[in-house]
DNA sequence: TATGAATGAGCGTTCATTCAT
DNA sequence: AATGAATGAACGCTCATTCAT
C-alpha cells in the first residue's frame, strides 16, 4: 500500500536523522539505521538505491520543507527589507529549534563525497535563488543599491548565515541563535544600501 | 641530514596535496601518496604518525603560511579599511593562484572526522582572530560603527569569504575570484559603517 | 535455521583445526581458514568476534568435550587408583587418536598472546581440578599417602602427561602414546603411596 | 677487538632479556632491544643473522650456563638419589632467583615459531640427558627399579618440574619455589623405587 | 514486501631486514 | 664496525550491497 510505503520511507529517514545525530556520519552504518527504524537491513534497499540516497533524501525532505516555508513566509512581506529579515529569522530559528537537523546538515553531512555534496547543493540552490529574488526585488524597489552584484551578494549572505549556524553548533550552543538575527540583518541591509 | 629530512617531509606533503586534489579525500590511499612522492609506504610513517597527520600538517604548513602572510601584509595598512581590503584580497587571490590547495581545503578536507576538523579549526582560529583585530581597530579609529558586535561580525565576514571560494570552485572556476574582491569589500565596509 | 547456523560454526572450527595443523599458527590467516571452510572471509565474523575467538572456541569445544568425557569415565571408577588410570588412559589415547587436535593444542596454540593463554588456562582448569578430586578421594580412601601435597601433586601429574604428549609429537610420533599409559600410571601410583 | 665484540654481543643479549621480560615476546621489537642495548638497529645484525637468533642465543647462553652448573653439581653426588635432589634443587632455585630468565623462558619464548621451538629443544636436550644419566646410574646402583622405562621417566620428571615453575609464575609467585623441592623429590623417588 | 545471512573488496599500519654512508 | 633511514610485504576487519527464501 502506498500509505504503508510512505510510512516505512519516513520511518527510515527519521531513524537516519537520529542515528547520524547520535553517532556521527562515520558511525552510522546501514545496520544501525535499520535497527533504529525497526526494519531489516535489506528492507532499506527497497526504498533507497544506495546508502547515499538516504542522506540525499534526508536533505531534500527536511530542508526542502524549510524552503517551502521560506517561500510561504516571504510572500506576505511588504518590502525586500522585510523579506530578508524574514528569511534570516526563519533560517536561524528553524535550525535552533531543530538541533538534530542542524547538527546533521551543518556538520555531519558535510563529511561526504562529491556526489552527495552536489546533491546537497541542488537542495540548497532554490534557497539561494530565493535570496536572489529578494535582492532583485530590493533593487527594483530602489531600496537596495543599483550597482549590487546579485550573484555575488547572495553568496555573501548565504555564507554568513551558514557560518553563524555552524559556529553556534561548534561552540556548544551557549547562546541564542535567534538573538543574532537583528544584528545580522542590520549588517546585511547596510551592505545592501 | 636535516635538509634531506625536510625534503622528504615536504615531498610527502606536496604529493598528498596533488593526490587528494586529483582523487578526492576518499580516493587517496597511503599507497597512492607514497607512490606519487616516490617513497615506500612505510617511509611515510617515519614522518607522520597517522594518515590523518599528513592532512593536519598540510593544513598547518600551507594555510599557516597564509596566516603569516596575512599578518605581514596587514602590518603596513594605514587604516582598518585598508587592512580588511588586504585580507580579502589575499584570501581570494592566494586560493585562486593555488587551485589544488583551494580544492583540498575547501572541499576535500571537510570530509573528515572530528579529530581532523578540530585541528583544522585550530589553524583557522588565528585567521578569524586577525579579522577580529581589524574590526576592533576600525571601531577604535571610529571608522567602523561603535555598536558593532565583533564576535558575530567576524563570522559573517569569514563565512562570506569561505562561501565565495567554495562556490567558485564548485561552479568550475568560470570567473575570476580576485575580480570579486572589490564588490565583496564594499559590501563589508558598508555593513561596518 | 539453528541447525544451519551450527553447521557453519562447526564448519569454521573444523577448517581452523585443519589449517592450523597444516600451516602452523602464524601461517593460518583468516582468508585461508575461510577458504578451507568454503565461506567468505566476512562470514567468519558473523560467528566469531575476532580471529582469536576461533582459537578459544576451538579449545573450548574440542578440549571441553574431553573434560566431559573424563568426568563421565571417572564416575564409574571404584577406586582412586582406577580413576587415575582412566584419566591417563583417556588423556593419551584421545590425543593419539586425534593428531590434529593434539598438534594444535600442544604446539601451535601455545604460540599465542596473553589473552588466548588465559582462555586456554580456563579450559584446562577443570581438568586439573578433576585430578585434584581424584587425589583427595585417594587420600580419604587411605589409598594415597596422607601427607600428600595435593596442590603440588596435581601439577606434577598434569605436567608429566603434558610433556609426554608434546615429546611424542615432536619426536614424530614414532611410538604408541597409549603404550606409555601403564608405566606412567605406575610411576604416579608409586609416588602417591 | 674480540673483547669488544663479546661486550656488544653480551650487551644485546642482556638487553633482549630485559626487554622481553618487560614487554612480552610480541612487544619486543628489534628497535626496542637496540635502544635498550644502546646500539643502532643495524648493529644487531652484525652479531645476529636474524631476530630469532637472539632468542636462540639467549636460551643457549643463559640456560646453557645452567646445564653446566647441573653437571658440576651432580659430579659430587654420592648417589643417584642425591643427584636427583640436587638437580631439582638447582632447577627450581636458579629460576626462583632469576625471575626475568624464568619468565622469558617459561612464558614468553614459548610463543615462538617451530624453528625456535626446535632450537630451544636442542638446548634442553642435554638437560634431559643429564636426568637420563642419573636414572641409569640409579638403576645400576640398584637404588631405582630395574624395570624403569628411562626414556619415559625422564620426560615425566622434566615435565613435572617444568609445570611447577610455570604454574608458580602464572600464580604470581605467591609462594616459595624452593619450598616445593622436598615434596617433589619425594614424589619422584617413590615413583622410581 | 520483507528478511537477514552471506558476501568480498578494500586499506592503514607494523616491523624485520637492508645498505649507502 | 657502526649507523639509522628506508623499505615493502603482509593481514585482520568492516560494512554496503545482494539474493534466496
From TrEMBL, chains A, B, C, D:
It comes from Paenibacillus shirakamiensis. Residues 6-66 form the HTH tetR-type domain. Residues 29-48 bind DNA. The keyword DNA-binding applies. Keywords: DNA-binding. This is TetR/AcrR family fatty acid metabolism transcriptional regulator. InterPro entries: Homeodomain-like_sf, HTH-type_Tx_Regulator, HTH_TetR, Tet_transcr_reg_TetR-rel_C_sf, Tscrpt_reg_YsiA_C. Pfam families: TetR_C_4, TetR_N.
Amino acid at each position: 500500500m502506498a500509505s504503508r510505503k510512505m510510512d516505512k520511507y519516513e520511518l527510515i529517514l527519521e531513524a537516519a536523522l537520529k542515528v547520524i545525530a547520535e553517532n556521527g556520519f562515520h558511525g552510522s552504518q546501514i545496520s544501525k539505521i535499520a535497527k533504529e527504524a525497526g526494519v531489516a537491513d535489506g528492507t532499506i534497499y527497497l526504498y533507497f538505491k544506495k546508502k547515499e540516497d538516504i542522506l540525499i533524501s534526508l536533505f531534500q525532505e527536511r530542508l526542502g520543507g524549510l524552503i517551502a516555508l521560506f517561500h510561504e513566509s516571504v510572500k506576505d512581506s511588504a518590502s525586500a527589507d522585510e523579506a530578508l529579515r524574514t528569511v534570516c529569522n526563519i533560517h536561524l530559528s528553524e535550525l535552533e529549534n531543530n538541533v538534530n537537523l542542524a547538527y546533521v546538515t551543518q556538520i555531519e553531512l558535510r563529511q561526504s563525497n562529491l556526489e552527495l555534496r552536489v546533491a546537497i547543493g541542488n537542495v540548497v540552490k532554490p534557497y539561494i535563488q530565493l535570496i536572489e529574488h529578494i535582492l532583485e526585488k530590493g533593487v527594483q524597489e530602489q531600496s537596495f543599491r543599483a550597482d549590487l552584484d546579485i550573484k555575488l551578494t547572495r553568496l555573501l549572505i548565504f555564507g554568513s548565515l551558514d557560518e553563524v549556524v555552524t559556529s553556534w553548533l561548534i561552540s556548544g550552543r551557549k547562546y541564542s541563535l535567534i538573538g543574532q538575527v537583528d544584528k545580522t540583518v542590520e549588517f546585511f541591509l547596510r551592505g545592501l544600501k
